[in-house]
Specification:
The structure holds 2 protein chains of 2 kinds.
Chain A lengths: L3 E10 L2 E11 L4 E5 L6 H8 L7 E6 L2 E2 L5 H6 L2 E3 L12 H8 L8 H6 L2 H20 L15 H13 L5 E5 L7 H16 L3 E5 L3 H7 L2 E6 L2 E6 L1 H6 L1 H8 L2 H5 L1
Parallel strand pairs in A: 3-8, 3-9, 6-7, 7-8
Antiparallel strand pairs in A: 1-2, 1-4, 4-5, 9-10
Helix pairs in contact in A: 3-6, 5-6
Chain B lengths: L4 H26 L7 H17 L5 H23 L4 H21 L18 H19 L2 H11 L1 H6 L4 H27 L9 H14 L5 H18 L3 H5 L1 H15 L11 H8 L2 H8 L1 H20 L5 H6 L17 H9 L1
Helix pairs in contact in B: 1-5, 1-8, 1-9, 1-10, 2-3, 2-4, 2-8, 3-8, 6-8, 9-10, 10-12, 12-15, 14-15
Classes of the chains: A alpha/beta, B mainly alpha.
Amino acid sequence: MPVLELREVSKSFGGITAVREVSLSVNPGDILGLIGPNGAGKTTLFNLVTGIYSPSSGEILLDGRNLAALQPHQITNSGLARTFQNIRIFGQMSVLENVMIGRHCRTRSGILGAILGMPGVKKEEKETRERCLELLDFVGLDVDPDEKASNLSYGQQRQLEIARALATDPELLLLDEPAAGMNLQETKEITSLIKRIRDAGKTILLIEHDMRMVMGTADRVAVLDHGTKIAEGSPKEVQRDPAVIKAYLGDEANVVA
Amino acid sequence: MMISPYYYQLLVIASINAIMALSLNLVTGCAGQLSLGHAAFMGIGAYTAGILTSVYDVPFAVSLIAGGAVAALAGLIVGLPTLRLKGDYLAIATLGFGEIIRVAILNMGITGGPFGLRGISKHTNLALAATAAVLVYWTMTRLMNSRFGRALTAIREDEVAAVAMGIDVTRCKVLAFVISAAWAGVAGGLFAHWFRYLHPSSFAFAASVEILSMVVLGGMGSLEGPVIGAVVLTYAPELLRGVSDFVSRHRMLFYGALLVIMMLVRPQGLVGAGVKGLRAARLSKFQGFGRLQSSKLGQWIAAAMEKVHWKGSTGSDDSCVVNEHVSGLAIGPGTGSTGTGVGRGGGEENAGS
């Protein structure tokens, strides 16, 4: 069974159809790359999957469960985590606290327990801390965990966002342009991180602008253009697909027009 | 140790104010939700506790808890719908709630309406008020360093990201609101059994704004800040008394000016840079405050505050020192022109019609 399945999902805003009857499935352990020119509907699709928008028609299933009835925070609870295209870390919190926020939905300590300083709460807090330090290590973020998050470099903030998302124990990780604004070296590092996450048993849906990165990372690639899926297949197949070439580079008719 | 009744009274009020500021800080400073109706929760607690002891002979301790509980319930009822709102909209909604409570108290029989609630016996003392303040401080420290406190900070920092991390944002905000209201209710109970007389104007918009000024002046989001803000703003008008005759007569004017200058010079609050590292940075960069300052509403509040303090200086020289401070900032006809009907003058008009 696919981890994520989209069945003829459409989304329109007024008269504009941003996503039109897109069907997609992401299999366990896969890295599915989702590409497309600007305005192709990638981000809308992302927002549909994360529950920020609800589809105008069609179904989105996570592990066979329909997401329509769930609120965004419940979607995270049921095993889907995301990062943001424009980084959204909690700038005034420490690096470690940022990751600990990711553990929120997997921990249970209540208010009363915290006020009374119950042993169970202290234990959970300690475990959370250790777990998050491990995650920082895993993503290769070598900074003082007590450093204020907004002091990190751009690339480090990306790593932190990924660590935070991983802290929610997701089955499926959605990465929204993780290489945006990064230099070659940083892109390389993030690519190897994405592969390591996959090797740790996670499934990944990767939206990316950087063709080279997607082609080098993804097992399969789906291409969106004007809200419609125009191609899907292995990176090699997609690269040769005339429709994809047309969408990205235009064709002769377009040039003349 | 002997202490003059004057300072004793100031200390009691400073303690009650500290509870108010600390509780508001949970919602506004920590979770970043601007509430302008906090005094209403205090009013609910004060009247509940006051009526329970004076009319129904309920033990004082029970009445305090009941006051907190009723205020918490009010917090839940108000919080559930309004905390889905953001920024200025939430501020307006809480402001509306505060006015509803004031007008309701003014028009109810059991509260004594515009005549106020009399005959409450004196149960509050400094030891009790100070213990309560310490207890609240301690609770807040524990809360802010917990999973719940972290979630609140995350909501303040970036609500969208907080949701994406699986935090039930509305639940967290409502919980914070309820806890905050409960403590305000307890503070109200202490207030009632110290002054032994309650009037709706003590819990009007101006009082809410004053509590907010304590939080902002002290330093939002920190724990020391609201306490320091409460103490400073409780003492400031009294200190100004001693400076000179001129200053004494116009002390509320100086007090207002002091607030304005403070905000210009130290927008991060008194303890802003004093605390180390991360927490200090949190204070200075608190985004909600920037929004508050720059928004229309913020400017309007600033204008209202100045007006309130100005009026306070003209009408209340003869009234009791303390009363003037806690409830008296709102006193004076004409403050109603801010559109909220603040002040006793406005209140009586309402009741008479």
